[in-house]
Design a protein that fits this description.
Blueprint: E1 3-10, E2 17-25, E3 29-39, E4 42-46, E5 49-51, E6 57-59, H1 66-86
């Protein structure tokens, strides 16, 4: 499975959320609403989630193993950094 497209929408608000990303696999399957978050140890991604009946948030889609997660995260963060360099002022209001 190859990552064939990454689309980054930077967030204009101040805070930990820096961007919302869509990622496409094999030009056939897309996952929307992956978040790029600034944490204490740097940038990381959070997979799309929704609030369950018990109040906890559960991932809607996520990688099964750490190698796949690392590959997805590094690809997304690399693209995010490219977007920052190309368009430092452009961002969307969420």
């Amino acid at each position: 499975m190859q990552i064939t497209d990454v689309r980054v929408r930077k967030v204009a608000k101040e805070g930990k959320l820096k961007a919302v990303v869509s990622i496409t696999f094999d030009d056939e399957f897309v996952v929307h609403d992956i978040k790029v978050i600034e944490g204490e140890k740097g940038l990381f991604i959070a997979m799309p989630s929704k609030k369950a009946m018990d109040g906890e948030y559960r991932d809607i889609a996520h990688p099964i193993n750490s190698g796949t997660r690392d590959r997805i995260q590094s690809t997304i963060l690399e693209k995010y950094k490219q977007v920052l360099e190309e368009e430092p002022e452009a961002a969307v209001e969420i």
